[in-house]
Amino acid sequence: EPISASPGDFPRQVATSEQAGANSVSRKKSMSLRGRDELWRTLRDASAASSRSEKKRETEITTLWETLNPADPSCLENAPSHTELQRDDEIRLELLRVSRLTSPQGTVLRLDLLRRTVVPKLLRSPVQWLVLVVYGITATVQRLGADLGNPEDLGFEASGTMVTFMIVFYIGYCYNRQQLYFDKGQRIMMGIQNVVANARVYYKDQAETRRLWRHLNLMHIAAYTGLADYYSEDNLYKPMVKKFGLEGEPGPVRDYEQEAFSMIALDCDGERACNMLELWALENIDAQYRMGAFSAPVHAMMNKELFEIGDALKAIFAANFQVLPFVYTHMVALSCTIYLCGSAFVKGMEFHPDSTLSVGLIVPLIYVVLTNITIYGLLTVGDVVIDPLGSDLEDFAILRFVEHTIKASFETMHCHSFRPPIEYVKDWHEEQERRNRGSVSEETSGHDGSQWRVPKKGQVRPPPANE
């Protein structure tokens, strides 16, 4: 309001002006507070919407996430039971024992193990019989007088060098692949024992040590459950968890873990379970470090050991996914088949009408059979060792791997310490004192318990008082 120049009205105008200014400031402050509240509500709603959008996106990513090599559900229907798995594992252990105790020459005479050799597999191969049929037809036609030519003019033997090179490369690849599986599997087993040993020494809460032991062994079992169609949740994971009590004590932690596992199909997504359990173990170690259980170097060492376990698991999953390309496998098999059929044809040409039965038929037949056994036998052995997690009895004894790791890490957690406990030392001293008192009592007491001194030589012991 305009201020009047009249001196009498000046105080009233000033008061009115001050009140108007105060009301204006109050209105501005009220508007400022309302604007701030609206701004906070807007930011909060935007943050909540962003959080919901982020969770939805994370859910979609998790839903779309797949393992490198998910198991085929149709193959899981034919998976063996746990009892059959145990029986196969015992046979694998027996074959390993025989391999350790028997020389290569001695295996030839073990006719009782003939069904465990490569011979039955070759007899079931149609291509093996195809080569013999080619030899039989060629020998018959040549014997009947048909002039198929001179075998020496064909120069077919030179192709054997090329076939030999391909077979050596293929078998070397298969062996290296099996060795990779074995090395990584042993690294996992040793890593679990090492991490549990560190937790046993450095953890202040032994309940958390047992929890870490459970999670590491669950990760080990879940890996093999999701790796091969031969192993499933019903024949490997559940029996092992129940047998060794890996589900934990009843309570909220156990229910939470079971709910987390219920969201993962171990038969198809075992790699997801391994990632989750690796994270749980990492969080466990980090929680103990933050509580001051151990120093930063120990923390780094345990994390490094845990990451090496995870890297070994990831390497196995990757190797199980990426195999030798089909085009090369087919080329090797086709080249070997053509070479063996051609070799059988050339050897059949030696059975001409003038040749004897032994030189023209039997000796070439032995050569054909020998080359068949050698070449197709090596291909069959390569097919067996290239996948050591399958159903062949020559594959790894996975049950033995899992049970050995569980028991060894459990004993690491509960074995005797190098320093005897205080209670043990105290009890030991008390026992020694009792033994010393008992020894003195035997030397200085009579038959009625009265005390007496051991008589010297030639001195008669006085009778007890009650005598």
Write a structural description.
With 467 residues, the chain is an all-alpha fold. It contains 16 helices and no strands. The protein has helices at 10-64, 73-76, 82-101, 104-108, 119-123, 126-143, 159-202, 206-227, 233-244, 252-262, 270-290, 296-321, 326-348, 357-385, 398-414, 422-444. Helix 8 packs antiparallel against helix 9, helix 8 packs antiparallel against helix 11 and helix 8 packs antiparallel against helix 15.
Task: For this entry, give a set of tags.
467 residues; mainly alpha; disordered C terminus; disordered N terminus; single chain
Largest sheet: none
Number of helices: 16
Q: Give the H and E element order.
A: HHHHHHHHHHHHHHHH
Which shape, going by the Cα principal axes?
elongated
Distance between the termini: 133 Å
* Class based on secondary structure composition and strand pairing: mainly alpha
Total DSSP E strands: 0
Mean pLDDT: 81
Q: Low-confidence segments, ≥5 residues, pLDDT <50?
A: 1-18, 446-457, 459-467
Fraction of helical residues: over 70%
The proportion of residues in beta strands is: under 5%
Question: What's the topology here?
Answer:
Layout: H1 10-64, H2 73-76, H3 82-101, H4 104-108, H5 119-123, H6 126-143, H7 159-202, H8 206-227, H9 233-244, H10 252-262, H11 270-290, H12 296-321, H13 326-348, H14 357-385, H15 398-414, H16 422-444
Helix pairs in contact: 6-13, 6-14, 7-8, 7-12, 7-13, 7-14, 7-15, 8-9, 8-11, 8-15, 11-12, 13-14
Short description:
By secondary structure, the chain is mainly α. The chain has 16 helices and no strands. Helix 7 packs antiparallel against helix 12.
